[in-house]
Amino acid sequence: MSASIPALPGSGLPISVFDTSSRSLVTPVQPGESASLYVCGITPYDSTHMGHASTYLAFDILQRAWRDGGTSVTYVQNITDIDDPLLERAALISEDWQAIAAREVVRFSDDMTALRILAPDHYVTVTEHMKGIVEWIDQLITFDAAYLLDGDVYFDVSKSSVFGEVSSLDAMTMETIFAERGGDPKRVGKRNPLDALLWLAARPGEPSWEAHFGAGRPGWHIECVAIAIDYLGGTVTVQGGGKDLIFPHHEMCNAQAVASGNVEEFAKAYVHAGMVALDGEKMSKSRGNLVFISALRDQGIDPMVIRLAIISHKYSSDWEWTNHDLVAAEKRVADWREALSYIGGADALELLMKMRVALANDLDTPAAINAVDEWAKETLNGNQQDPTAQGIVSRALDSLLGIAL
Questions:
Q1: Cα–Cα distance between 83 and 207 in angstroms, integer?
Q2: Residue ranges, the chain, pLDDT below 70
Q3: Residue 284 has what pLDDT?
Q4: pLDDT score, position 47
Q5: 118, 131, 295, 360: least CB-packed within 10 angstroms?
Q6: How far is the C-alpha of 40 from the C-alpha of 55, rounded, in Å?
Q7: What whole-number distance in Å separates Cα of residue 354 and Cα of residue 19?
Q8: Which SS3 state, helix, strand or coil, does residue 79 take?
């Protein structure tokens, strides 16, 4: 269940975000209009880590800023509940893959709720949308944008008029990254090294689903295309995720969606969160250098402190997690709570405008947080002329930054 969003005086501003495809700030929707948001979800074989939380918080802030301007938002997120990492984990610990997925989805949901991240309107597993995914693959085959290879089905990137527009990478760089992120550029028989798997033919001992082109399970990219467009009804306002999804994932999503003939573009804007590092290296399950949200919560750390520590960094920047983040956030929370305990404070409407201006400028949460720091400092130093300040500021923190104190 999503946290409620308190109403604020006035209305939010048009929100500009950095679009990876155009390499520029864009305003994909105006206040009062409708927006659709698709953010790529988890593969549920392990707990929610800091990198996950940072990404989902970025798009939570976007939702809050949109809604503050009167924009109605439909948010869809997938769950890749059938994939090699999940099956490998199941084999490693001798547990049913479905049981692992169900357990980790619950843990993920608990972490998101604790961080007060607004829940998607549609939270869709790949396995529950298999029929729709098969239909998309079938359409690509019909349009001659896909072909069979030893029972597998591949997307033919040469049939896409937009391939390369999201990432703007050259072919050699694409091949290198493709191999690092689940692709198979060296497979013999493919028409192009960058052709991406749409359907993996059934393998002994692994789950599979029936399709007229052969039993099997879907590839990564077509899952998100099918879920996003089928649930959102067409071109997505913003496609979101971490920077590591720019290529091949979001590039392939756009190429496959357009090649199907169903849409002219997959998304109006592609917005990407930065990578989170620990001890100088990007956090990843393969490296094992993860900070888990559930572990921090189990240590008794206030989820609002965790949330504030994360959004104190600009969403689009790469950053490194340290204990200093928690110490600084704990002090901020204490200062803000003390200022909110007073009767009267510094000008709340001025603060509200500063917060809205900051978020309108590519979701600049550090600037918004600094504005709150200034308000708290003024209030604690005796500027208590606004009798409505505490109520407005408390609601603004909750509504815009998701910090409930």
A1: 10
A2: 1, 283-288
A3: 67
A4: 81
A5: 131
A6: 10
A7: 23
A8: strand
> pLDDT at position 290, please?
84
For the stretch 376-379, contacts whose Cβ atoms lie closer than 8 Å and that sit 24 or more positions apart, written own/partner, are 376/335, 376/336, 376/338, 376/339, 377/335, 378/345, 378/346, 379/339, 379/342, 379/345, 379/346
Would you give the end-to-end CA distance of the chain in angstroms?
19
DSSP states of 297-357: HHTT--HHHHHHHHHTS-TTS-EE--HHHHHHHHHHHHHHHHHHTSSSBS-HHHHHHHHHH
Record the tokens describing residue 364, joined without a space: 């600049």
Whole-angstrom CA distances from 41 to 52, 123, 126, 221, 363 are 9, 9, 10, 12, 21
Of 10, 15, 12, whose CA–CA distance to 29 is shortest? 15
Q: Give CA–CA dist 95/34, Å, rounded.
A: 43
The beta-strand segments (E) located in 9-89 are: 17-19, 24-26, 34-39, 72-79
Q: What is the pLDDT of residue 3?
A: 74
Tell me what pLDDT residue 29 has: 97
